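Slack export, channel: ligand-projects

TW: morning all. Re-posting the request from yesterday since it got buried. We need the structure predicted with the small molecule present, not the apo form. The ligand is copper (II) ion; the SMILES is in the block with the sequence. No rush, but it would help planning for next week.
GE: picking it up
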Amino acid sequence: MSNHDHDEEQLPPTPGERFTKVLKGKDVQQAFALGIFFTLVFVVLGWKFYPKWMPTIMSTDMKSNEALMVAFTYISAPICGLVLGMAAYTFLQRQRGDTPPEDGPGIRTNGPMVIVWTVVTSLFALLAIIWGIVELNVGSEAAAAEAKTALVVNVTGSQWVWTFEYPAQGIETNELNLPIDRPVIFNVISADVNHSFWPVQLGVKVDANRLETTVVHTTPTRLGPIDVKCAELCGLYHAYMETGGNIMTTTNFDNWVTAQGGHNA
Ligand SMILES: [Cu+2]
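GE: finished. pasting the full token output, ligand included:
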């Protein structure tokens, strides 16, 4: 091709020129426009709909879980949006029967492009790590402060039932009733295989292992029913390993404890 011969006489384009050329390509711009469209869809989902689709927020932990979920939806929206944009553009172009544009030089040899994507994705990863570490520390500080006043519940998972022992109250039940606004410490263990203790609306999900107690805590902040499930495949009736309970006023909780034959503490 004469065009090709002509190119060889010129200096090869610099990485910066290649970057600009890529961005100016009609196909890239159209795919990018679709990417922005999908990004907006995810932002609207994260902003308006995901919070509604999540379980009712009934504890401090569930509140921070929701904030995390929504923030990560925003962060991942442009990444997911651009990938979907490219996929949709390719699909639409195929439907039209257009010939795909010829491949340019490999992106891996384009310095600026490589730097941009490495830096941007590293920043996302760093944000996720820092956020996670901060949340963990906030949790353990709160736990230390709450230890004296907290209600202790010993949770045992076994095939295929949850058992809740309240040592200070001297009762054992299969429904998880808790008083509102009082910190609760769960000592979680399994009597047989691995289970995962998941009181859904409390935003707690932790493995129940045999011979090893896992301590987890939260503070219920809203009255109402809760679901307790097993979130670790644990055998034939794993799917039915669920129970419920209620977040109650302190008075109602005390009455319930008394009705179970326990003493208030
Ligand atoms: Cu289980």
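GE: first-pass observations. The first helix runs from residue 2 to 9. Residues 13-100 form one domain.
TW: perfect, thank you
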